[in-house]
Amino acid sequence: MADKLISLAELAGGVPKKPVRGASEQLPPGASPTLQDLTECLMFSPGDGRIWLNGARMLLMHSSGIGALRRELIESMGLARARGIMLRTGYHCGARDAALIKERFPEADFLALFAAGPIIHAIEGAVKVEPVHFEFDMNLGTYYGEFLWHHSSEDDEHIAQFGIGTEPACWMQTGYATGYTSAMVGRLILYQEVECRSTGSSICRLIGKPAEEWDNAEEILADLNAEPFVSSGGHGATARSQGDKGALPADLQACRPAQDGDMVGISSAFNAACHMLRRVAPTQATVLFTGESGVGKEMFARMLHRISPRHDEPFVAINCAAIPENLMESELFGVERGAFTGATQSRAGRFERADGGTLFLDEIATLSLVAQGKLLRALQEGEIERVGGSRTLKVNVRVVAATNVDLRAAAQRGEFREDLFFRLNVFPIHLPPLRERKEDIPLLMTHFLQRFTQLHGRHISGFTPRTADTLLAYDFPGNIRELQNLVERGVISAPDGGAIDLAHLFTSGERLAQPMFSIGNRGQLAAATNDPAPDTRTPAAPGNDAIQALFGGRDLSRLSLQEIEDTMIDHCLREVKGNVSEAARRLGLTRAQLSYRLSRRLDAE
Ligand code: ZN
Rounded mean pLDDT of 378-401? Predict the structure, then answer.
């Protein structure tokens, strides 16, 4: 058996148990994740235009489309650069898959996780992989892997475009193997095809070894690190010429999400907002953050201040909705002693306190028209007057505002001063709602899980797969704040040492999401069952016989949705002996939703 020593770092980081040595022959037969387990990671949400692989968005596209892309790349930039691009693209995908698999099966045997790469690659439709042998020894830093590839999609396309040639052509797949293995074992393992169908062989044979064991490592490393792809990372040629063979290429680093405290995300919508933030931060421009409640406007405002030249000066926030109207003016501009009853002392307002720094005005649309007029004057003149005071004070304040209403429309309705709107709308940054950046949900889940397990001193292993799937499909009307609250609730409710399940999250009437589809027994899309027994990770899927029995042998394709739903509800109610709350939970409904369905049936009868 392989050694099962676990380092302290691994314990702390929660990475899968990684044995020091291992070989393919030691892989226990039927070890999880199996093909079935991995297939369950793939979810289709056709109504929503999305496909998920355990939280990462996937694309189903024509293999011939990739063929056309390859040809264009080769013809426009030459074979070597095209090969590099495809290799690095494959590398990115392999490294991403390794991260997803580790995250989804935190308890799985390391060898089984390792062996999952070829299975996922096959599920994705790239190639059928037949492992010949692999082995590694972490102490010695050795690795050897040999795999056969059957009917590689890349070869099909390459041969269709260019015919049989003299060089192997499965570039993206080779990159995938390199990325997956390197991310799994934590050091760079280089792969090369020693036989390939594109050179006339009947199959492709792939060998993987550490860089220093390849005679032509420089060439492969050059392909992995070429400048055009990674120029933003500030490495490439230099890293290559230093011959830093053991280090992971920065692509792997780049797979890490942008992360600044709570600012977590890899989605394009999030990154677009971050990009704008970085653009405007060094200037003095007024910034207006727009977006729904809970999207993180204050967090962005704080980050803006932190990366601006004013970062050593004060950041002062005021929530305009939280301050009574009659106190707003004195809050903003300060008050002189005796200005009104109760003003027993002179006091500086927020503008004065923010002098030299940044003043953040949240929910600006709730300001009264009078306060808006005074704010406009302060912005235009750079001067304020305390309430009851007679002298004007110069202030140097960068104003940042936020709103969840459409200020332009409010101005048209006469509820917001148009001149103030234009004064604030110098550089608007729209923050997307969470449902438009679903790619970030898994990152945020992990982020909040870490934060709250630490804060509450709990040991939680993660989320059950169906919890992850449900959160991905959920619309999050309360955005990031809602996800944060759900995870905190889950961390508190879940049993110590266990995983967060649906019942730990949705306890206060959240509306669960639209249906998702997964791969059925015969490879077709089938409605995802949102509900096995609560504490088993991968319960046996009911066979066709069980389903037939449930529906009394009727032809399912001829039943209405209503009949199927009614049958499921009745079956579930029988199983839980009429306990409506429990049945609702098992069906992924709230108790109110199930009661409504039951009462509707009674009305109809
Ligand atoms: Zn090949």
Answer: 91
